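User: Reviewer 2 asked us to show a designed sequence for the structure in our supplementary figure. I'm pasting the structure tokens here. Could you produce the per-position amino acids so we can include them in the response letter?
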């Protein structure tokens, strides 16, 4: 059974394995990356790898947790606080879409792995819900912070609908590469969200 590190040296070793796993899963994907390669990248022995993780799936779970946190607490952590409220509603909408793009391009390969597993793995589905919820919460806060510009009355519902459209577009353009002209898709998404959320300027 994998052990929980208590000493600083052991904690650092486990952290290096997680960082190495995130790097290699992001670059090569889960199925093309093995424990030996991860151990080499982390500069630890293969035995050390197995002393902290049952297998590479166990590592993927913990890497995915760290990755999801880098989005929910990193990209979306101060999402509403940093919105350009002094500018027009079009700039605010563009900021929302651009921030979502950042969240989906931190590690596209790792994000794909999470989405591929979310229908089979409850843990991955929960992490994905947390990411979407962080976007929704941020959008709702932004709308609540500029009531003089907003057209819709139910901010939470509006945030859910807009976040759903943003997530779908990000998946098609970034994670699935299904749109031939991604910039056009992002521009149309921004225009659609702007018209729905805000009064005409």
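Assistant: Here is a per-position design you can include in the supplement:
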């Amino acid at each position: 059974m994998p052990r929980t590190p208590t000493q600083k040296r052991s904690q650092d070793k486990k952290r290096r394995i997680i960082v190495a796993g995130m790097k290699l899963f992001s670059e090569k994907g889960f199925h093309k990356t093995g424990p030996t390669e991860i151990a080499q990248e982390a500069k630890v022995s293969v035995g050390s790898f197995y002393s902290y993780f049952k297998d590479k799936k166990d590592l993927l779970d913990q890497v995915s947790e760290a990755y999801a946190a880098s989005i929910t607490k990193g990209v979306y952590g101060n999402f509403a606080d940093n919105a350009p409220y002094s500018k027009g509603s079009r700039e605010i909408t563009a900021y929302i879409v651009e921030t979502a793009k950042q969240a989906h391009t931190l590690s596209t390969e790792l994000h794909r792995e999470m989405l591929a597993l979310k229908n089979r793995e409850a843990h991955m589905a929960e992490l994905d819900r947390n990411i979407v919820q962080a976007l929704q919460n941020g959008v709702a806060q932004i709308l609540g912070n500029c009531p003089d510009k907003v057209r819709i009355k139910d901010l939470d519902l509006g945030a859910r609908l807009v976040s759903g459209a943003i997530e779908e577009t990000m998946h098609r353009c970034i994670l699935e590469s299904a749109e031939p002209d991604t910039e056009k898709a992002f521009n149309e998404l921004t225009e659609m969200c702007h018209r729905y959320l805000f009064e005409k300027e």
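For the response letter, you might also mention the following. The chain has a mean pLDDT of 92. The domain at 64-197 is CATH 1.10.357 (Tetracycline Repressor; domain 2).
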